[in-house]
Specification:
This protein is of the alpha/beta class and 147 residues long. It has helices at residues 36-50, 69-85, 97-107, 112-136; strands at residues 2-7, 12-18, 25-32, 52-59, 89-93. α3 (97-107) crosses α4.
Length: 147
């Protein structure tokens, strides 16, 4: 069963899709669009191409655990994706994933300009890896607290 993780942003949306076993992150991409309908359209193409059966959407909580406007946007997108594709959407606490993605790319020698083009896909892969690890441990459900 393939799982797709999404790091939804204002201008760039990172996507990571697991392998067929649902154990490892595989395909990654970045959707470069500010238009929500374009992002949803492209996500639908990827869902179809990879036969995705479950979605994990980064849920950007504030560092103190409160919810802000970005979390509201993510929750609205989750509802839209569930309605459009009939797939379950798990909201995943994504605090620090973008920072960690920047650090990973910097350690790999990518300069700031090159990091900007791929950081969202790496953040989506980190969201996916966290979710898959949690699922392997036998815990399921909406992981809005990232436990």
């Amino acid at each position: 069963m393939r799982v797709m993780a999404i790091d939804y942003g204002d201008a760039h949306t990172g996507v990571a899709v697991s392998d067929l076993t649902g154990l490892l992150a595989g395909y990654t991409d970045t959707i470069h669009s500010r238009r929500r309908e374009e992002v949803v359209r492209r996500l639908g193409e990827i869902i179809g191409e990879y036969t995705v059966e479950e979605l994990v959407l980064g849920y950007p909580k504030n560092m103190d655990g409160t919810l802000g406007p970005r979390a509201e946007k993510a929750a609205a997108l989750a509802a839209e994706l569930e309605a459009a594709f009939g797939l379950p959407v798990c909201l995943w606490d994504e605090r620090r994933t973008t920072i960690d993605a920047h650090n990973i790319l910097a350690a790999a020698g990518k300069d700031a300009r090159k990091r900007k083009k791929t950081v969202d896909a790496v953040a989506a892969a980190l969201i996916l890896e966290g979710y898959l690890t949690r699922r392997r441990s036998g815990r399921t459900g909406r992981a809005v607290d990232g436990e």
